[in-house]
Amino acid sequence: MKRVLVTGAAGFLGHHLALALANKGYNLTLCDDFSRGKKDTALHYLDLDLTQPQSFQQLNGPYDAVYHLAAVNGTRYFYEKPDQVLKINLLSTIHLLDWFVASGSKKFLFASTPEAYAGTIDLYKTPLPTPETVPLMISDIQNPRWSYAGSKIAGELLTLNYARQHNFAAHIVRYHNIYGPRMGEAHVIPEFILRALKKENPFRIYGDKHTRSFCYISDAIEATLCIMETDTPAGGAWHIGNASEEIPMLELAKRICRLAQYEPEWDIHPAPEGSVQRRVPDTRKIMEVLKMPPQINLTTGLAKTYEWYLHEDFIHSGTRKNRNE
Fold first, then answer.
1. What is the pLDDT of residues 6-65, one digit of tens each?
2. Domains of the chain from N-terminus onward
3. Which residues make beta-bridge pairs with 176?
4. CA angle 19, 21, 25 (to 5 degrees)
5. Closest to 202 measured CA to CA, from 256, 263, 155
6. What is the pTM for the complete model shown?
7. For the chain, does the N or the C end have fewer beta carbons within 10 angstroms?
């Protein structure tokens, strides 16, 4: 039986990945510090702070596969505590890689982000859809928003160079606007759903013409598992997303409000400084190598996500910060 470690296992991606791995019968070790995530009673977790080297004494390696999803995420945190975003994300990755090498574990996956190349899009004529080979950069080091992107660029460098120096298989996956049930409140789709359910009027939109390309959680998890479980070339990045589901923010809000049977007035504002006008991944690599087209389109995925939030207790008990992120 394969032994698998997932960090950040109580978060949105980590939770769904853990359930998928559990369904495959793997021997799982799940860890999180629960600063944002929520425990699932069907799973067992270790409460670990990966910025502390002594925490790794509880992991009892080696593992056949390590999925490193733990990170401080969320735009609000980028602006409010950029020093902690950098410190936590970098220290946890460095300590985990040091432990991984010493433990003799086999495969390593680092969860990255399209924010890593957002600066390139901002300053240069970057191809759209954007391939994995695009250069990574920070466009404004004075803007605290780039704390997260900077930590992920450094994480990609650490992963690739540790793998090269210590001869283990490593993959980088950049998740592009993954959505679905149990993703908390600090993301655009659940935020719009909750505001629609509360009948916000006028309905605020920041950057109405900015577009994003959304991918449903089950498609993202299947692609992630396939990357680690099949004989795919190691040492590079993979863009996980759904290139066919690009949509402007105003149209996204309208579709969600239609699900809520609600027609508000629109209150349009400029996008936050540093926000990318358009983001859509080039997913040809994953399509050609893994032969895995997305199965859930935006219409179906939004309906599934809306139904989950409708039947949770966000609305009845008031918005609960970071409830299920």
1. 999 999 999 999 999 999 999 999 999 998 778 887 799 999 999 999 999 999 989 999
2. 3-179+214-244+279-295 (3.40.50.720)
3. none
4. 110
5. 263
6. 0.93
7. N
